[in-house]
Write a structure and sequence with these properties.
5 strands; single chain; Ribosomal Protein L13p, Chain: A; two-stranded antiparallel sheet
């Protein structure tokens, strides 16, 4: 049975909350956990605008995306991502913490990040 967990991420470091969310999405907190089955819960995230980023990550951390074509490498700084879509940094962190199997997309569908208005 799936339950919905609501997590307020205001003032919590990005990596700490991402590991907690990945554990809930995968279902590792349940006694009936099996790695080949998707028995995780849904996670609703609020307060993403006030997430804590430690050190100089805001100015130095860079995300890359590559299209596969020559000259197709695009880079974005974390500061630009946090201004445009603050939930994208959290969803990327959680996505990379989940196992690279067929179940990862289904787990990510249960992550709901509430955008600030």
């Amino acid at each position: 049975m799936r339950t919905t967990h609501t997590i307020d991420v205001s003032g919590v470091p990005l990596g700490r909350v991402a590991t907690r969310i990945a554990t809930l999405l995968r279902g590792k907190h349940k006694p009936e956990f099996e790695p080949h089955l998707d028995r995780g819960d849904a996670v609703h995230v609020i307060g993403i605008k006030n997430i804590k980023l430690t050190g100089r990550k805001v100015s130095q951390k860079v995300y890359h995306s590559y299209s596969g074509y020559p000259g197709g490498l695009k880079t974005k700084k974390l500061s630009h991502i946090m201004d445009a879509k603050p939930g994208e940094a959290l969803s990327r962190a959680v996505y990379q913490m989940l196992p690279p199997t067929r179940l990862r997309k289904e787990m990510m569908k249960r992550l709901i990040i509430e955008n600030p208005s």
